[in-house]
Amino acid sequence: MKHLANASVYPAFNHNQSQEAEQEYDRLRDLARQEAGKRSSCFDRAHQAYERGDGQAAHQLSEEGKKHGASMEQYNKQASEFIFRENNAPGRVASDTIDLHGQFVEEAEDILEERIKYAQAHGQTHLHVIVGKGNHSPHHIQKIKPRVEQVCQELGLQYHTEPNEGRIYVNLTGGPADSIPPQHHPQHHGGGYPGQQPHHGGQHQPQGQNDEVEKLVKKFLPRLMRKLERQCCIVM
Questions:
Q1: 13, 69, 90, 97: which could join 17 in a potential S-S bond, CB 3.0 to 4.6 Å?
Q2: DSSP secondary structure string, 155-169?
Q3: Residue of 129, 147, 144, 149 lying closest to 8 (CA atoms)
């Protein structure tokens, strides 16, 4: 079984974020990891109890492990939703861009699939997907990029790694991806990725893009939770 709680992705934010926001994201992921550890411990002890013939103890430990698994999934759900809203808030990325920073691979896959469906349904012709360069991953290996490429291949969409290398351009029309259109917004020169915009708390944000973010959150998270529930293993 895949354990989302062990698939850490850092840094989670694509912009200069407040210490409180970083702490909240880290807190949720850490709680998920703790619940994953407790779940594994319960399942291990349940297996040991089953091996020695104590079926009642095995069943109780198995049920306890499932509860810890459910708590893990809930904390990861909250973290995924939190980081998605933070990184994709209006003014931080262009309307033709989605940022997958801070997501685990399985989370990123579901989010991207829903974003592509939404974009195609609303007549958008392309999408810029921020996947990160893998600078902060073990051995500098990009984890999300291969899954993004896999999703594009499964959907029959052409894609191209942009010069930034931390972004992928996806042609949503089914045509070639050899011509990248200009960005909708000027590049933010304070660091990060092209199309990433500064965010100001008191500034009015485009309501349409904010609604889009909320729709995606409501669609991909229940789907992710259902997938995790199907993956949850039973030791006996």
A1: 13
A2: HT--EEE-TTSSEEE
A3: 144
